[in-house]
Amino acid sequence: MALEKFFSPNSVAIVGASADTKKVGHVILKNFAERYTGRIYPVNLQEKEILGLKCHPSVSSIRDKIDMAVIAVPPAVANSVVKECVEKKIEAVVVITAGYKEIGTAEGVLRENELEKIVEGTKTRIVGPNCLGILDTETNVDTMFLPEYKMDKAVAGNIALISQSGAFASALLDWFFSEGIGISKFVSYGNRTDVDEPDLLEFLLHDKKTKCIVMYIEGPKDGRELMATLKKVTKQKPVVVLKSGKSTAGIKAAASHTGSLAGSYPVFRGMLRQAGAVEAETLDDAFDYAKIFSTQPAMKGKRVAIVTNGGGYGILCADACTEECLELAELSDRTKREIKKVLPSYSSLHNPVDLIGDANADRYRATLDALALDPEVDAIVVVSLFQTSSLGPEVVDVISGISRTRKKPVVVCATGGAYTGTLVKNLEESGVPVFKTPNRTLKALRALYTHSRNR
Amino acid sequence: MALEKFFSPNSVAIVGASADTKKVGHVILKNFAERYTGRIYPVNLQEKEILGLKCHPSVSSIRDKIDMAVIAVPPAVANSVVKECVEKKIEAVVVITAGYKEIGTAEGVLRENELEKIVEGTKTRIVGPNCLGILDTETNVDTMFLPEYKMDKAVAGNIALISQSGAFASALLDWFFSEGIGISKFVSYGNRTDVDEPDLLEFLLHDKKTKCIVMYIEGPKDGRELMATLKKVTKQKPVVVLKSGKSTAGIKAAASHTGSLAGSYPVFRGMLRQAGAVEAETLDDAFDYAKIFSTQPAMKGKRVAIVTNGGGYGILCADACTEECLELAELSDRTKREIKKVLPSYSSLHNPVDLIGDANADRYRATLDALALDPEVDAIVVVSLFQTSSLGPEVVDVISGISRTRKKPVVVCATGGAYTGTLVKNLEESGVPVFKTPNRTLKALRALYTHSRNR
């Protein structure tokens, strides 16, 4: 199976490498030249050298063994380059070039069919055409050709993202990176003439750098195959699926976007559930679920403890907990005794635990210590409203300390501006996911529980 | 009616003003000393002068007329100070002091009952006790005693926020300000011994600086009165209501937080709808709805046009449009002709209008111009994925130009990191609300439609 070569090639040919800084073929070559440590072979008929790298007039003129080719030439010649790649026994080919079936003309469809036939029965696999290709934060394979200044710098992490839509994925990646959320691998596979979702899922199942998989899909090529693969993968890793083309209007739009048959959404949804995947109903969900899966351990039961320094937030969290079909934990007597020691005499000792507006880090510490040991509690939601006078930045260490014990999930809810933002960043850097609102916090927790239970 | 005096007093007595910078009475005095332009009378028995202002030993010892008093003294003496205020004929009294019925003891309840009786039948009105009090961004009345560095600087605007919970409100305000969303007035009324939601709603209805009202409530004192007032107010201004204490667990938590009887949520919900209020199901909704109401004109029908440079986002928007019970507009022939001029020949001319990944600002301009004039379109959703090479920052002016015609709502959906963030800020500063995801964009639009229709 050649998929490994897409992510860890020893040598890469970039066909359509260009000296013109505005061209896709230049941006891609530059990505590799700057960060990739394997051998790079720019292919360009006219130029002798680009970015200090010797050019080759064609793929076949390269003497050395090539593991991967990236093709960014006009559509009229792309297929003949792929043919050369097959002859040269290149196992991984990324066809960036657009102008295939996605344009909806007979010419485009013919070109796509021809491409499919070129690799049929060979050892060459194709990602694309009409795609952004691949980003691997470990090996620095990076075929994304978006202007660098328009996107936040890639962050390495344990989330893999695979996406039928390139623009969608680049926006989501940009959002991930801006919040310090790292990815292991990203694949935009465009028209998926060859490599498709099941291939990628199967590969990512065995990828040690990947802890969870996020997937954007309009419609599967083969629903049954996808579900069979999902069933296998989700036994070991969470797969978050954002499906578009759910409504009549959306299905119509999907047909004209990628030509996908989005199919019946209720059926797809039921199949996802059976396959153990976690559906993200919205893009916000996909983001939040990725964040919680990438950092938190399994949630063994549905009993949640809520700790807060704002009573209103406690109520909102309790409501959200119910709405997400989770349960408020009954605190053990030991926990109540411990909390009683640090709270004013008139405080109630119920869950949500209201540490009251004048809570400081010590009050959080005593409470979180008790909850971490409480066998009645499966996960802890910590509301930290950093605007109050008494709550100092020390609480960040308190929370991340508890979280590091790694015995149960700990998530934080914090709303605010710049000052809060700094503390949120500190929390997230220490591996504690923070959500801005009660509903999003509990919804993410529910996704974690759903996967833990399914597994 | 004395409520005006809470927001535009000519003179303010601050009782419990302190020289100790850590004390609430110091922070409040400092707020006034720095920004408020009326006369300020610190009241403190020991000190002669604080922050350069002459102190008075008691309220009754002040010779001049006082419009408003802010009380931040220990609970044991607070009621006697209020008595003095009544005798001095002060019409607006904010009791910051906590230790009333919210502590749940007999002493607290007695104290609250006594406070109620002190002002009964007088011209003195009380906001509080146990509250953050008032912030007026025009007159700079500001009784919020949170450390300045922990919250973003207040932004003036047209949203009024009234909240039963102080901590909730400070977190939400901080979030508003951090995104440049401005407020006209803010009231945290705590235990609402006297001034309550109907009083405030009635006042805000006539407040020229307020375009929309956001309200956080656990349970009303008098549900019927609240609904009657809402019915009146929502005929002229949108009121966004975030209710907490919806679930059994939440109702229990609310009872121990503010002692509110949250009551039956389905009943409350039905009443809200009948009263023409817009319910925010979540805190995210409350934020988003405030943003759209503060900037956008009425939405006269439910027909939405979607314009995008990412096909996937178009589909997600179409799905969300359906989910929010809005409709995708059928574009007029004129609009289709205009769009056809700027799009590649193979493009489909349907709604969502996919301007394709290589769209530039000109393509957006031609399309938005046509949609703005299209009588079949009631609102425009513009998806701007700024990561693509071809879409320059000029598109910001294009979108805000269209929006300024003010004939129909224009909202933007943009996801991303730092670069996108800068352009989003520019858009929002020009009065165009931007939402991070398709679902949030369409949900906000639906709220706008709901209010426009109710009215």
Structural class by helix and strand composition of chain A: alpha/beta
Largest sheet of chain A: 6 strands, mixed
Oligomer: homodimer
Q: In percent terms, what proportion of residues of chain A is strand?
A: 15-25%
Low-confidence segments of chain A: none
Number of helices of chain A: 16
Overall helicity of chain A: 40-55%
Give the tally of β-strands of chain A.
19
Query: Order of strands side by side in the largest beta sheet of chain A?
Result: 8-10-9-11-12-13
Q: Most extensive interface, residues per chain?
A: A-B, 84 and 84 residues
Radius of gyration of chain A: 25 Å
Q: Globular, elongated, flat, extended or rod-shaped: what is the shape of chain A?
A: elongated
Give structural notes.
The structure is a homodimer of 455-residue chains. With 455 residues, the first copy, chain A, is an alpha/beta fold. In chain A, 41% of the residues lie in helices and 17% in strands. Chain A is built from 16 helices and 19 strands. Chain A has helices at residues 3-7, 24-35, 75-87, 106-119, 166-178, 197-205, 223-233, 248-257, 265-274, 283-295, 311-323, 333-342, 361-373, 394-404, 418-429, 438-454, and strands at residues 11-15, 39-43, 49-50, 53-54, 68-71, 92-95, 125-127, 133-136, 156-163, 183-188, 212-217, 239-243, 278-280, 303-308, 327-328, 353-354, 379-383, 410-413, 434-435. In chain A, helix 15 (418-429) links the parallel strand 18 (410-413) and strand 19 (434-435). In chain A, helix 7 (223-233) packs parallel to helix 9 and helix 11 (311-323) runs parallel beside helix 16. The two termini of chain A are 27 Å apart. Chains A and B meet through helix 5, helix 8, helix 11, helix 15 and helix 16 of A and helix 5, helix 8, helix 11, helix 15 and helix 16 of B.
